[in-house]
Request: fold
Amino acid sequence: DNVDFLERNKTHSIYISNALYRPVERGRGTAEDVVAMSSIVLDVDMFDEDGAHAAQNLPRTDDEAISIIAHAPEPTIIVRTGHGFQFWWVFDEPVILDSTEKKNRAASAIRNFQYPIRDHARSLGFQVDQTDDVGRIWRLPGYRNMKIVNKPVPVECVDMGGSRHKVKSFGLDIVGLPTDPAPAATPEVKTTAKPR
Reply:
């Protein structure tokens, strides 16, 4: 089962997604297979002497990396990937993405959220890649980052004490949250009691 698989692969790169996929026959699925999204994630690469990243204009310290999100809401979870950080803003409820239009609008909302953060990074002299596809995968804490094969580094959750965020604050309330359900029908109650 999944637990046994994860235990057997502690020394491997293991990935998770902030999206829920419909069952697929092969592979991990694509954006077309995404049916819901739980959060927005920002990936901040850091400069590495070993060449984990091609870009050179990257933060070199944890403080520099974290300063990139100085004007953003507090993230719910912060993961140190070994060669950077992933910042997770987890929603208070899932966003349902049951059509291509909703997925496109979700990607647009992610871009709109990330743009001022990336713009702030540029003002600091740093590059942050755009990660607005709804089907992206992320490194799982507790495992290894094997990007440099002969130099594995741990992936660690360094903070998970942040609050969950209202979907509306990300402009995502229009892209597929389940609408208020129709009022449930009042069940018919049969009784043999006579009216008074």
